[in-house]
Amino acid sequence: EVQLVESGGGLVQAGGSLRLSCKASGFTFGDYSIAWFRQAPGKEREGVSAISTVDGKTYYSDSVKGRFTFSRDIAENTAYLQMNRLRPEDTAIYYCAAERYGLGTSEANEYDYWGQGTQVTVKS
Question: Comparing 11-15, 55-59, 77-81, which segment has the lowest mean pLDDT?
């Protein structure tokens, strides 16, 4: 059974940091592009960061570039999103997603598997 389980969300003051984890099981982790998306109330799901299985390059949205860092540990089947200098507008449910042999895009409909999400709330 394929599973993606996010953790690490919580409540933090503006300017603080959080590290999200995405633990994968049921598939060959290294064969899949992994992405982080977020969805705030009343807004569309937004691609935040992703890594390509083709060239290993990492994508960041303009809104998080320079503040968020994506990494993954293939041996542990886990992806991470280090979020620094958090802002109230970063408040959202954060999801990880996986796409087999993916290019690491921000297009949600390209991803095959999704986690249940973890809430991040940033207080001003």
Answer: 55-59
